[in-house]
Structure formats: structure tokens, C-alpha cells
Write a structure and sequence with these properties.
The complex is a heterodimer of chains A (314) and B (512).
Chain A lengths: L10 H9 L3 H19 L17 H4 L8 H7 L4 H19 L1 H12 L3 H12 L6 H12 L5 H8 L11 H29 L3 H9 L4 H25 L7 H7 L5 H4 L2 H10 L4 H30 L5
Chain B lengths: L1 H19 L19 E6 L1 E2 L10 H10 L1 E5 L2 E2 L3 H9 L7 E3 L5 H9 L7 H7 L1 H9 L2 H6 L12 E2 L8 E5 H7 L7 H13 L11 E4 L3 H11 L10 E3 L6 E3 L4 H15 L12 H9 L3 E6 L10 E4 L23 E3 L6 H10 L3 H9 L6 E3 L5 E3 L10 H5 L13 E2 L10 H10 L15 H27 L7 H11 L1 H15 L1
Parallel strand pairs in B: 1-3, 1-5, 2-4, 6-16, 8-11
Antiparallel strand pairs in B: 5-13, 7-11, 7-12, 9-10, 14-15
Classes of the chains: A mainly alpha (314), B alpha/beta (512).
Chain lengths: 314, 512
């Protein structure tokens, strides 16, 4: 196929043809652009706090540089829990990735196979309602369900004649509880993008497959999945880019003295030392370190995906 | 040289201008109300407790504005999400004039004092705060506790001059004891017998042994009271003992006594005598157990949250240690209860404003509200609440919080024998009497450290307390065997236990 080079246009004509004629699209772009500038680029100015001793009276710009420059990073690693929080964060995220990533894809594929539109809509609504529950509510529910004496789960365990489990009060069960409740809460919501992608698949492909005698299973494997693969890869790369990040709220709410060995993650440690004690430089330093690791991960994931699957973000 | 002279001349020219605008000029004669000749306005920031009425509608604030001639502008934040509100407050461009009951932490006092947000108060106190200064002379501990390492006082503490308001009492269910035919336990041996009897005895008559023999709100409260019975102290508010000669501090986290305490707790846990909720419950759940009379023996400061008809306060158990101690808070119990910011135009008036609340009459207004409306005087001239407050079905605390700010703690207040009835009922006073013999030892209060030391201490504190609590919980629940005690000790040493003790030792040395 030959590509015809676009004819060269003079400055004003180029502007008129290429820019002004698309003004509606560009106007739409303005809103997200403004969002990024205001919430992502302007705050980057504050990253310097990681290398400074922040003083509220002096402001970000005039606060003195830390001595030595990487002081706040060193302080983080001087904590006995530094490395274990990094591992705990990664372990929870890997768990969420291993179970939480395929779950919405499976859900979307299943929903796509349901013929009754009404049933499908009801099911979809039921699965994504938990997403709108606040984390506090979800954790309170968890606590009620897992109580060793009165909790639903332990009552069932007792009913089948087994020893009850200290689910909330043990390091062993913290990760499964965290991951599974996360999957339950987010599966329906995350499935929306795949459902949308599946809705966009050309029905002619399914009809052709039917004519060729493909079974329902084969249609999923050979039509549905390949068609949403670009979406899956994009979502996967984006997910990899958050491997070092977990919000502190849920872990902090689930935390107690008995599960602290696995529930102390980077963000909860930073919350306790940095935010609660007003040590903003320290909190910024750890946040920056997190972002750098995330950046490295996302670039690596993107490269690997481009080389192996021929799909990538950029 | 000429420049210097010019500067001097200019400065001298400015002096009269400053003198004209002197913030002292608004003050009335010392010791007289109103505080100011012309009405002024001061804005205040603070923590409005969960049970408090809106501050501006409280009798205390309304009356006090009338008395002082100082109109207040209320910018307080609700207790829900207060830490976040406070964190944002510091980043404001301008600050409110006074911080009243702002719950400042030691770190904040040092940090924002050092940065110039909080005004140094020591000179102002000398001149304009006769009441607070007199109290500081009467209780010398206060000065050491509120003075920052740079010698300045940036925030005032509440002064709690009543022992009973600074200790956790040991409450024992007398009705259960009588029903079991047992006497008040005095030794660990007797205590175990009593606890086992409580477990068997079916107080609520449902046929199950679901009563809780012994309990505390959480692990910290458990140790606070139990540690003293094993001869352990909380010097500087930390897990440290002071040597006989008063010169050396040692951490007891790795000591045999602490191991014995854990072993005993483990035994109680295994036998089902100790409340298993201790490790995870919220305070409200403990509160419900208190008011529900569900516990045999438990620890709480006062009897304001439960009906104490069936309970008596008992003394610490003997048998585990030659020396028994009762842990108590310092006289300057609540730190960071009042501060003046750099944006305050009338610091002198603000100091007088707070100082009056530390006078006898001021403390009555602060703790009882308006005379004749919520309180009257008894034959000695001491205040008593009118009927319907202490015996209010909603509880005395929430009732008083409709017109005074002290319920919930953390407010600048002077508590003494005359004005403490609401928190020290006769039963509580009697429970305190049982503890008094064990409070006669030198106990240092938690001091303020300078910023650098504080930074290091923050990391050490978080690490050590996190690890200790997690291991202690596992030892007690039998998830960690006592064979692993040495590993536990080594890990603590590796975290910098000696460095941590060293920081406090250095402070102790500086006192001598």
C-alpha cells in the first residue's frame, strides 16, 4: 500500500485546515488537559520538598535544602520496617494483580454470553454496586463477617465442624482478605471497560465463526478475546505502573497489633510518620521514591509487551 | 559607618510609632475584669469535641466574652477529621489569634514554635499571667514539661492537681464477689481464684459462662496498669525504669519482669479469663461492656461511664514483685492546650484571657458554666452542679459539654479538689485512695525534644512500639512461644533500643 504524502500547505491555510476545522475536538481536549495541568503538573513543583526541610512559614520555595540532600530518603530506610513495608506492598499488589486483574475480564466475557438483556443488566448492576461503598463500610463489613465468635464466616466454619479462624487477628489471612475483598468490590466496575470493548466487536465476526461451525467456547477464545486484547494489554500496563502504590485507607482500617507484620505497607508507614506528625518532606520523599519505581515498572512492562504481544501504550 | 548611623536614626524614629500602637494599651488594670478597656476581637481555633455543643452557643464562651470584653471569632474544627483540619490549618497564610484546646502534639509545639508560628510565652507569662505562674511555682514539674529545649514555652498545658484524674483505677465487681463468696483479691494467687470463679459464675443467668473476668480497653491500657504490679515503671511516659539512685534509665521491654507479665497474661488468655477482644476492639465496644456491667475486673480512670454501685476500686496485686507502682499522668497532663500565634495583635490580652481560667473563680466558670444557672455554691463557697446534670440520663459528660468545653479532655483547665466533682465522684476518690500508697516514687513526665532528636525519635518510637505490641500480642495469644524470647530481644536491640533509651538518658542527665 502506498501512502500519499499530505500536500504541503502554507502557514495560515495549514492552521485553518488542520486546527480551526477541528475546533470542537480540540475544545473537548481542553478539559482533560486543564485537569492534568492543574492536578498533575503544577503539583510537581512540590516534589522539591523531598530534598528540603519544609518550613510552613517559609513556604515550599524558600525552605532550606536538606542536609545531606537525600536525608529524608535515608530516614525512611533507617526504619526497621522499611524493607518489610516494601515487600508487603508488592505482595498485596501482586495478589491483586493475579486475581483481581483476570476477574473483571472473565466477568465481562460471561456477561457477554448472556442472551437476556434484562438479566444481564441486573447482574451487571449487582456486581458493580459494591464499588460505590466507602472503604470504611467495606472494612466494617469485613470485621463483622470475620469475627471469630459471631462472624458469618466462622459460624459456617464451625457448622462444618472445623476450628474457627482468627481471620482479622493474624498475619496469614490479612493478604487474602485484602485481595479478595478488593476483587469483590472492584470487579464489576473494572469489567465496564471490557464490556464496552466487547460491545464494539463486529457481529459479522461472530456470524462468520458460527457459519464455520465454531462452538460458543471457540467463539470466546478466537473472537472475543483477541478483539479485546488491546484493551487488556493497555489495562495491564497501566496496572503494572501502580505496583508500588496502595492507598493507606483500607490497610490502616484493617490493621491491628496482630496483623501488623503483613498489614504495614509503605503508605501506612508514611501516613503515621509523615502526615500524622506533619513531616511533609518525609512523606514527599517516600512518595517520590514510589513514583520513580512505578515509572521504571511501567516503562519495562510497556517494552516487554511491545516486543512480545506487539501491543503497547506508546 | 554612616549607614549604621542612618539605620539607628531611622529605627529611633520608628520607636514612637510603635509605642503609639502598643498592644498593651488596650489592657485594663491587672486583676480586673474586663481585661480590655476597649472591646477587641480575637479569633480562636481548636478542636470541638464529639459531644460538644457548637462553641459559640456555649454558656461558658458567651459569659466569658461578656466578662472580658474580648469578642471571640470561632473558627474551631469538629473532632471528626480533626487531625486533617489541623494539618491544613498550619499551611494557612494567616493564623487565628489563639489556639484553644487545639490538641497540639509535642512535635508540633517544637516545630511550629521553632518556625515562629507559635509565640514564645515565657516572658508574657511572667508579666501577665499571675495565676499560671503561681501554679508553675507550686508544681515545679510543669515547667520542665512545657519548656522546649530552646528554653521557650510555646504552649500551655492543662493543670490537673488531683491524683484521681491522672490514674487508671482497678474496678472490681463487688456484687459478683459477694455472689461467689470471695473477698477482694490482694495477691495474684487470690486474683486467679477470683477470675476463675467469675468465669464459672453466671451473672446474667443465661446458663453460659460468657462473663468477662478481666479486661482492658486495649493492650496499652492493659500494660499501663499491669506493668506496675510487676515492678515496672513508665519513666518519661515510656517503658523504662529508673535505677535506685535515680541516675540510670533502663528499658524493661527486654527484662525478665516484662517476660513474667507476658507469661501471666498468656496464662490468663489460655484459660479464657482475659477478654480476647482486647487486641482488636474499638473504645466504644469497651464502653458498652462497662455500661453493660459485663466485666469482673477492668481498668478505667473514673466511674462517669458506668454505674459504679456494684463496683469497688481495689489496690494493685502483690506477689510478682517486691515493689509495686501505679502509673500516673503528670500534673501537666494534657500538653498543647493553648497557644498564641504570630498573627495575634494582642498577645498580652490573650495571655490574660487564658490566665483568668487558671484562677479559682475562672476555673469554676470554665468547669461549671454560669453561676445560678448550672451551678450554685455550697456552704464552703465551693461549686456544686444544679440537679439534673451529674444525674442526667444522657450521662454527665455530654450534658456538661452543652455549656462547657472541658469534657472530652485536651482543654486548658485547672482541675483541683474543689472543682473536680464531675470527674472524681466519691467512688472514684475512694478507688484512688487504694492506689495512693503506690504512687510515692520519682516519675518523670514526657519532655519536649528539639527538632533533630525528635525526627530520630519518631522513627525509633514507631518501630519499637509497633514491634513490641505485635510480639506482645502474639506471646499472650500463644502464637509465639516463649522460646522465641531471645529472638524478640535481639530484634529490639537491633532496632536501636539502646539509642532510644540513650535519648531519654541524656535528658535525665541534663536535669542533674
Amino acid at each position: 500500500m502506498t501512502v500519499h504524502p499530505a500536500p504541503r500547505l502554507s502557514g495560515t491555510r495549514w492552521f485553518k485546515k488542520r486546527v480551526l476545522s477541528h475546533w470542537q475536538l480540540l475544545a473537548l481536549l481542553l478539559v482533560p488537559l486543564a485537569w492534568y495541568i492543574i492536578f498533575c503538573y503544577i503539583p510537581m513543583f512540590g516534589v522539591q520538598l523531598a530534598f528540603k526541610n519544609y518550613k510552613v512559614r517559609l513556604g515550599i520555595w524558600d525552605s532550606p535544602w536538606a542536609e545531606p540532600l537525600l536525608r529524608h530518603f535515608a530516614r525512611y530506610f533507617s526504619s526497621y520496617y522499611a524493607w518489610s513495608t516494601i515487600w508487603n506492598t508488592l505482595a498485596i499488589n501482586l495478589g491483586c494483580l493475579a486475581i483481581g486483574f483476570p476477574a473483571p475480564i472473565l466477568l465481562a466475557l460471561m456477561l457477554n454470553e448472556i442472551n437476556s438483556l434484562r438479566f444481564r443488566k441486573v447482574l451487571q448492576n449487582i456486581t458493580y454496586i459494591p464499588y460505590f461503598l466507602s472503604i470504611v463500610v467495606v472494612v466494617s463489613m469485613l470485621k463483622l463477617f470475620t469475627d471469630q465468635r459471631y462472624g458469618l464466616i466462622n459460624i459456617m466454619i464451625r457448622a462444618i465442624g472445623m476450628q474457627t479462624l482468627p481471620l482479622m487477628e493474624s498475619e496469614k489471612y490479612f493478604r487474602p482478605l485484602y485481595v479478595l475483598s478488593n476483587v469483590w468490590q472492584n470487579m464489576g466496575w473494572n469489567a465496564i471497560i471490557y464490556i464496552a470493548a466487547l460491545a464494539g466487536v463486529d457481529t459479522a465476526l461472530y456470524e462468520a465463526a458460527t457459519v464455520d461451525g465454531a462452538s460458543r467456547w471457540q467463539k470466546i477464545i478466537h473472537v472475543s478475546l483477541p478483539c479485546i486484547l488491546p484493551t487488556i494489554v493497555t489495562m495491564f500496563i497501566l496496572r503494572i505502573g501502580q505496583l508500588m502504590t496502595i492507598g493507606f485507607e483500607k490497610a490502616l482500617l484493617m490493621q491491628n497489633d496482630l496483623n501488623i507484620g503483613t498489614s504495614e505497607i509503605i503508605s501506612t508507614l508514611v501516613y503515621k510518620n509523615g502526615i500524622q506528625k506533619g513531616d511533609y518532606s518525609y512523606a514527599t520523599a517516600v512518595g517520590l521514591m514510589n513514583s520513580v519505581v512505578n515509572l521504571i515498572l511501567i516503562v519495562t512492562a510497556n517494552t516487554v509487551c511491545r516486543k512480545t504481544l506487539d501491543q503497547s501504550l506508546w | 559607618m554612616t549607614k549604621k548611623i542612618l539605620c539607628l536614626v531611622l529605627v529611633l524614629c520608628l520607636v514612637p510609632v510603635f509605642a503609639l500602637a502598643d498592644s498593651k494599651d488596650v489592657l485594663n488594670t491587672e486583676g480586673e475584669l474586663p481585661i480590655v478597656k476597649e472591646p477587641i476581637t480575637l479569633s480562636i481555633f481548636g478542636k470541638q469535641g464529639a459531644i460538644h455543643a457548637e462553641w459559640s452557643t456555649m454558656d461558658f464562651f458567651k459569659k466569658y466574652q461578656e466578662l472580658t470584653g474580648i469578642t471571640l471569632e470561632f473558627n474551631q474544627a469538629p473532632s471528626q477529621g480533626y487531625d486533617e483540619s489541623k494539618a491544613l490549618m498550619w499551611t494557612n497564610d494567616t493564623y487565628d489569634d489563639m489556639l484553644v484546646a487545639p490538641a497540639l502534639s509535642g512535635t508540633e509545639i517544637i516545630k511550629y514554635g521553632d518556625e515562629g508560628v507559635l509565640l514564645p510565652l515565657e516572658d508574657l507569662l511572667k508579666e501577665y499571667a499571675p495565676n499560671y505562674t503561681a501554679l508553675m511555682e507550686k508544681y515545679p514539674d510543669i515547667k520542665g514539661r512545657i519548656t522546649a529545649p530552646d528554653g521557650h514555652i510555646y504552649a500551655l498545658a492543662a493543670i490537673i492537681a488531683v491524683n484521681a484524674a491522672r490514674t487508671e483505677k482497678i474496678w472490681c465487681n463487688k456484687a459478683w464477689l459477694d455472689a461467689c463468696g470471695l473477698a477482694v483479691p490482694t495477691t495474684f494467687e487470690e486474683l486467679e481464684t477470683v477470675l476463675r470463679a467469675f468465669k464459672e459464675y453466671d451473672a446474667n443467668g443465661n446458663g453460659e459462662a460468657d462473663e468477662i473476668p478481666i479486661a482492658a480497653a486495649d493492650l496499652n491500657f492493659w500494660f499501663d496498669t499491669m506493668a506496675g504490679m510487676f515492678g515496672l515503671q513508665y519513666q518519661f511516659g515510656q517503658e523504662m525504669n529508673l535505677s535506685e539512685d535515680g541516675k540510670t534509665l533502663t528499658s524493661w521491654l527486654t527484662s525478665d519482669q516484662f517476660k513474667a507479665l507476658l507469661q501471666w497474661s498468656n496464662k490468663m488468655y489460655e484459660e479464657g479469663l482475659m477478654d480476647p477482644d482486647l487486641f482488636t476492639q474499638e473504645y466504644s465496644k469497651f464502653n458498652a461492656k462497662m455500661s453493660g456491667q459485663m466485666m469482673g475486673i477492668f481498668f478505667n480512670q473514673a466511674d462517669d461511664a458506668f454505674d459504679s454501685t456494684n463496683y469497688v476500686g481495689i489496690a494493685p496485686m502483690a506477689g510478682m514483685s517486691d515493689k509495686l507502682y501505679v502509673q500516673s499522668g503528670p500534673v501537666a497532663r494534657d500538653m498543647g492546650t493553648f497557644a498564641i500565634t504570630c498573627d495575634c495583635d494582642y498577645p498580652e490580652a490573650a495571655v490574660r484571657w487564658i490566665d483568668y481560667l487558671f484562677s479559682e473563680e475562672g476555673s469554676y466558670l470554665m468547669r461549671y458554666g454560669i453561676e445560678g444557672k448550672t451551678w450554685t455554691r455550697d456552704e464552703n463557697g465551693y461549686p456544686v452542679y444544679v440537679d439534673g446534670i451529674l444525674n442526667n440520663p444522657n450521662g454527665s459528660g455530654p450534658t456538661i459539654a452543652q455549656f462547657c468545653i472541658w469534657p472530652g479532655g485536651g482543654s486548658p483547665q485547672y482541675l483541683n479538689d474543689r472543682n473536680c466533682i464531675a470527674v472524681c465522684s466519691p467512688t472514684t476518690q475512694a478507688a484512688q485512695a487504694a492506689l495512693d500508697p503506690y504512687m510515692d516514687y520519682v516519675l518523670y513526665a514526657e519532655p519536649l525534644f528539639d527538632a533533630d532528636v525528635n525526627e530520630r525519635l519518631q522513627i525509633l518510637d514507631t518501630d519499637i512500639s509497633t514491634y513490641m505490641k505485635s510480639c506482645a500480642a502474639k506471646f499472650i495469644r500463644g502464637e509465639m512461644s516463649f522460646d522465641e524470647w531471645d529472638t524478640y530481644c535481639q530484634t529490639l536491640e537491633g532496632m536501636g533500643l539502646q539509642e532510644w533509651v540513650g535519648i531519654y538518658q541524656e535528658r535525665l542527665d541534663s536535669y542533674q
